[in-house]
Write a structure and sequence with these properties.
Layout (H helix, E strand, L loop, with lengths): L5 E2 L1 E4 L17 H14 L3 E4 L1 E2 L6 E2 L2 H14 L3 E4 L9 H11 L3 E5 L3 E2 L15 H9 L4 E2 L3 H15 L2 E6 L2 H12 L7 E7 L9 H15 L3 E7 L4 H10 L3 E4 L6 E3 L2 E2 L3 H14 L3 E2 L2 H8 L10
Parallel strand pairs: 1-16, 2-3, 2-13, 3-6, 6-7, 7-10, 10-11, 11-12, 12-13
Antiparallel strand pairs: 4-5, 8-9, 14-15
Helix pairs in contact: 1-2, 1-9, 2-3, 3-5, 6-7
Length: 311
Amino acid sequence: MRKQDKVIITCAVTGSIHTPTMTPHLPITPEEIAEAAIGAAEAGAAIIHLHARDPNDGRPTPDPDVFMQFLPRIKQSTDAVINITTGGGHGMSIEERLAAPLRAKPEMCSLNMGSMNFGLFPMLDRYKEFRHEWERQHLENSRDFIFRNTFKDIEYILTHLGEAHGTRFEFECYDVGHLYTLAHFLDRKLVTPPLFVQTIFGILGGIGADPENVAHMHRIADKLFGDDWSWSILAAGRNQMPLCTMAAMMGANVRVGLEDSIYLGKGELATSNAAQVAKIRSILETLSLKIATPAEARAMLDLKGGDRVDF
């Protein structure tokens, strides 16, 4: 793993997992997403990870026109690195998932390193009623859903987004096998160092949120990538802050945000993305760790710069 003096905080602002019924603080409209992203950047996030939602009912949408209602505003208001999803939401085709990134040509995109079960259906037991009928169906459909990213899909994204437009990636690794898939693409020179490896814990279908698993994923990535990778971690739900803290002490960057957890503490809904960023920043600074600025994050990850995007 690359040695680094500062910690990059990523904030994933809205995602496609949680639904409007679960929290009134979930950003839905383009205006809300922009405000949430700007607030997170002001609180200390160097990277902002973005999905879009239908402003009428909050369902995930791949529509590039919706993305373009908030991307320029965020760029104009902050120097943060803007990272756009290529994962989209359940049921979206790869063409739909890539529509916004190919139009925006951002500095960074997320890239799931494999196909996997992605179970959200256990959350059905927590809510008796939903504000929108799509929410119940969204969660239930995950019982019989495989998120698809085949080797061919990954090759397509790396070629059409990475090679063609200079976009670099947050390589999302939900299990140990995903690290080996990334190593495969590194061997083929379809990806180039420094790798920004996001290890993800606590999604049903991926590796569990256990401190032993955090150490194991770190160990395997170190074996595969040597000094050619920068580590980041996210953990779902109540595991967000504890595992991010643990990994930061081991040299990792961290990701928080309402995409990954709607809570700030036990039983306490986070009122904003900025609140989660402020909390993890306070923890990191208490541990005598310094926070990377957007410019420092760009240098650490070899990004092309905000002047070379199409928004």
